[in-house]
Amino acid sequence: MSQTSYDEAYARLFAALRFAAGKHRDQRRKDAGASPYINHPIAVAEILTRVGGVTDVAVLQAAVLHDTIEDTETTREELEREFGADVAALVVEMTDDKSRPSPERKQLQVEHAPRMSDRARLIKIADKICNVVDVTHAPPASWGLDRRREYLDWTERVVAGCRGVSHELEEYYDARLQEGRDVLGER
Prior knowledge:
Layout: H1 3-23, H2 39-50, H3 57-65, H4 68-71, H5 76-83, H6 85-94, H7 102-112, H8 118-137, H9 145-160, H10 167-184
Helix pairs in contact: 1-3, 2-3, 2-8, 3-6, 3-8, 5-6, 6-8, 7-9, 8-9, 8-10, 9-10
């Protein structure tokens, strides 16, 4: 890749980071420390690059934008205008319909995972890695052990449908899941 291509890629990625930071600026995670929400999408993109070796800028942009439609007032059209149809489509693949009850949304994630594009499945695995680490080490204050264990079990069902896209991400997920089970104890 030429220097100009690298510069353009970095500019596109930083534009997505700036956009996501603006959209999530007033949001906090559910952990006891109420950490800034933007830390999560940044962590997802970091896992994709560091562990998965992902260099596809559209995938990394979608990773940092993956919760914007679901958790902010962002629309698909806005993402298309700012980042193109490819990135917007990836974000839409990652988006839950918040009008549905939580148990239904969770089941739909399990059912939808095997039908996602390979690029979206990469993001989904990285997202679940980050969530497993958070639920293990910095869970929502109101979550007891059983709920945390159930969450880990659910992520395993989602990731099962995503397998086959990155041995490195899958292996890393498996290690983080085992670590979570070790920390939380088996039922």
